[in-house]
Design brief:
Elements lengths: L6 H13 L12 E3 L29 E5 L3 H11 L12 E6 L15 H13 L4 E6 L5 H7 L2 H7 L3 E4 L5 E5 L7 E5 L7 E5 L1 E5 L3 E3 L20 H11 L4 E10 L12 E10 L2 H13 L7 H8 L12 E5 L1
Length: 327
């Protein structure tokens, strides 16, 4: 099925498809292509700190993939396949850090943390591609041992051979983030010593930013008094996105926390959408999910405006090469 007409028409068609998550109105195997198109010198960071883990763009491949279906592991496999396959992103011998959202002492059904089946399948694929290590880690808000256990992420990741690292004081390094508002800050060490970085946020509501998606997930690399960052939350989000540029982003929208985020807790606030959104442009993915699930246009979200101004990605998702697949 091809979308015809204006950019605005394509945009509305894309939003309608994503909002049908879990309803699966399209035929199985549907594939749709939408074709489109001076600050002060920063203080030097430590020489060992690497912050860009990106892979080269490929004009023959989609920039964004939206997959819907009943099995989170199948969704992961298909999304990565459509983006060129796991070996586009992972090389033999890589140390891969996989960054889910494991902030809260919640079950998978409460949709405050990334789905454990998504985390496990990404880990398995990385190891299958020859990664030396697949590390699953996050700086939790609640007790990390409880968060990783109750969410199911620790057990699921370890079952496929991934290493789970819980945040401890000894694992943080003070780093100059070189941001507009973020300067010296403690960062969890695995995020500073990886070869590849995969961002696995869950799509959920946030009381301050409207939505918590890929860019917001980078709060989970930081130690220290993170709540202070809420005073300049949009600027700090963009500073983090500029500091940490992932190899791949996969937004888990299998269950979406539509209200009362980011911590959630009430199952009535959760919608079963059975969707993953994957790609190499985190700004585009955030803009798409924010519009689809909360009707938030990127022009109204300051952090997406700032990200666009800093050339961190393209929020105009309707012009992107996008593929939709329903399994």
């Amino acid at each position: 099925m091809d979308f015809e007409g204006t950019s605005a028409g394509r945009r509305e068609a894309m939003i309608r498809l994503l909002r049908l998550g879990g309803v699966a109105s399209a035929a199985a195997g549907l594939a749709v292509w939408l074709n489109g198109r001076g600050r002060p010198a920063p203080a030097p960071a430590a020489a060992t700190v690497r912050t860009s883990f990106q892979v080269p763009a490929d004009a023959a491949l989609p920039e964004m993939v939206v997959v819907q279906g009943d099995d989170p592991a199948h969704l992961v496999r298909r999304a990565i396949e459509e983006l060129g396959g796991i070996r586009r992103f992972i090389s033999r011998g890589d140390v891969v850090v996989i960054k889910p959202n494991v902030a809260w002492d919640r079950t998978a059904e409460q949709a405050a943390n990334t789905n454990p089946l998504v985390v496990a399948e990404v880990s398995r694929l990385c190891l299958e591609a020859g990664a030396r290590r697949a590390i699953v880690t996050d700086v939790s808000i609640n007790d990390p041992r409880s968060c990783f256990a109750r969410s199911g992420i620790a057990a699921a990741a370890r079952a496929v051979g991934a290493d789970v690292i819980l945040a401890e004081d000894r694992l943080f390094r003070q780093v100059d983030l070189r941001g507009e508002v973020l300067h010296s800050w403690p960062v969890l060490d695995p995020f500073l010593s990886a070869d590849k970085m995969i961002n696995l946020p869950i799509a959920k509501h946030h009381s301050l930013t409207g939505a918590s998606l890929g860019m917001k997930n980078w709060y989970g690399i930081l130690g220290g008094p993170r709540q202070q960052l809420h005073q300049h939350i949009h600027e700090s989000l963009v500073d983090l996105a500029e500091f940490m540029r992932p190899t791949l982003t996969i937004i888990d929208a299998f269950r979406v926390l539509l209200r009362n985020g980011p911590g959630g807790g009430n199952l009535a606030d959760v919608a079963l959408m059975k969707t993953l959104i994957a790609g190499t442009d985190p700004v585009m993915l955030d803009a798409y999910a924010a519009k689809a699930y909360w009707d938030l246009d990127w022009h109204t979200l300051r952090y997406l405006q700032l990200a666009s101004q800093r050339h961190l990605g393209t929020p105009s998702f309707e012009t992107a090469r996008t593929r939709f697949v329903t399994l």
